[in-house]
């Protein structure tokens, strides 16, 4: 009943875990030398990897306007994490792809995520973590993953 009638303890716990995970990944990325980024940049990186995307795709992924996504893309391009290239199939469009620095930042985020969930494995055990992963994939198999602005 708690899930359908207002904010209960389970909902607060889920939101707390999501917020803490996002913050710990962000802190881990910064600690690995990638400064000047916000968690929203990381969510955009996730959409740009592995093959790049037009500005419209991160806008849909992030749930923002094309103009807001354009500003976010401009920031990561200016900071050297991505670059614009001609789109291979649409001469009118530009493809936004991660640079080597963007890929290095993505790898740092993956390392930070592993560090962030390590205490969960220690607390719950590998079997329960595998079960949790399967259940979460059933609930939200494809995203999109929305940023904490």
Description of the structure:
It is a single chain. The chain has 149 residues and is mostly helical. 62% of the residues lie in helices and 7% in strands. The chain contains six helices and two strands. It has a two-stranded antiparallel ribbon. A hairpin with a 7-residue loop joins strand 1 and strand 2 (94-98). The longest helix is centred in the C-terminal third of the chain and has 25 residues, at 100-124. The mean pLDDT is 87.
Name the structural class: mainly alpha
- Give the strand content: 5-15%
Helicity range of the residues?
55-70%
Mean pLDDT over all positions = 87
Number of helices: 6
Q: How do the SSEs run, as a string of H and E?
A: HHHHEEHH
Q: Given the C-alpha coordinates, what overall shape results? A: globular
Strand order of the largest sheet: 1-2
Q: List unreliable stretches of 5+ residues.
A: none
Number of strands: 2
Q: How far apart, in Å, are the first and last alpha carbons? A: 30 Å
Report on the biggest sheet: 2 strands, antiparallel
Radius of gyration, CA atoms, in whole angstroms: 17 Å
